[in-house]
Design goal:
The protein is mainly alpha-helical and 303 residues long. The chain has 2 domains: 67 residues, no CATH class; 206 residues, MetI-like fold, CATH 1.10.3720.10. Helices cover 76% and strands 1% of the residues. The chain contains 13 helices and 2 strands; from the N terminus they run ααααββααααααααα. The chain has a two-stranded antiparallel sheet with strand order 1-2. Strand 1 and strand 2 form a beta hairpin.
Length: 303
């Protein structure tokens, strides 16, 4: 985890370092000041921009380890404070999307596996393919047109209301529902072809009990991995959806940072998302080991 985060921090700083734009000039521009060349040079010296790349990176990394991600001159505030303000709204949106994802993916995946090679299976697989293929920006606009403009069932102007979070949550979840439905189907079908399932059927055990008492628990290892990693995807994949629905979260924040070349905020966002992905991945590894004692982080050399 430490190595990956360190590598992500180095790449992030390097990409920002070679990006066009002068941070000192951007600072004055945010304050609506037209600086002289002397003022610019003095600001560059104070900000450490005249130091070699490795020195700048070292100073930034030391501050990062202290919890200081820099200062956003465009948003006029510390990056950590801005992220802290935006994170709850993105977590709220991702939580609603994850709820839809779990409900529909499990239901459709199990039905598709049970009804293999039947009409329902083909229908679910077809809908899954459509869901995967639909661009999020197009889907969001269609949902707004149908359920906000025409039917007036939901709103997009009140993020604090439940009606304001349903449509962006569905838009974020549908592509993942299509993907995970097919993967859950594959995981269950793999278990259904196992010897223990054949033996259970031969002993006359009810099919429903086989599915829910044996097949699903044995499929949990791969399914938990999928859904845990989807949390990182949901948190990091909200940029387009949040901008379409004017959702005040991390996605709209990072788009604004890109447009305004707010490099300090972009650095903070990338480091935050990298930490989320790595932490979730590590947690999944530990959870799988706890659920299945046969899995070991350190393998047995005799096997």
């Amino acid at each position: 985890m430490v190595i990956v985060i360190f590598g992500a921090s180095f790449l992030t700083f390097a990409l920002i370092y070679i990006s066009p734009g002068d941070p000192a000039e951007m600072m004055f521009r945010a304050q609506e000041i037209v600086p002289s060349e002397e003022a610019l040079e003095r600001a560059r010296e104070e900000m450490g921009l005249n130091n070699p790349f490795i020195v700048q990176y070292g100073n930034w990394l030391i501050n990062l380890l202290k919890g200081d991600m820099g200062y956003s001159y465009i948003n006029t505030g510390p990056v950590t404070d801005i992220l802290r303000q935006k994170i709850p709204m993105t977590i709220k949106l991702a939580s609603v999307a994850l709820l839809f994802l779990v409900m529909f993916s499990f239901t459709l995946g199990i039905l598709s596996a049970i009804k293999k090679s039947k009409f329902l299976d083909y229908a679910i697989r077809g809908l899954s393919l459509v869901g995967i293929s639909i661009p999020a920006f197009w889907l969001g606009l269609i949902l707004i047109y149908l359920f906000v403009v025409k039917i007036n069932l939901f709103t997009i102007t009140n993020p604090g209301d439940f009606k304001g979070v349903v449509l962006p949550g569905i838009t974020l979840a549908i592509p993942l529902i299509g993907r995970y439905t097919r993967q859950i189907r594959a995981a269950i079908l793999e278990q259904l072809s196992s010897d223990y399932v054949v033996g259970a059927r031969a002993r006359g055990i009810n099919e429903r009990r086989i599915i829910f008492a044996h097949v699903l628990p044995n499929s949990l290892k791969s399914i938990i991995t999928l859904f845990a990693l989807s949390i990182g995807v949901l948190l990091g994949g909200t940029v387009i959806v949040e901008n379409i629905f004017s959702w005040p979260g991390l996605g709209s924040m990072v788009m604004s940072a890109i447009v305004n070349r707010d490099y300090a905020l972009l650095q903070g966002y990338v480091i935050f998302m990298a930490s989320i992905y790595i932490t979730i991945s590590f947690t999944v590894d530990i959870s799988i080991q706890a659920l299945d004692p046969r899995v070991r982080l350190k393998g047995d050399k005799s096997q």
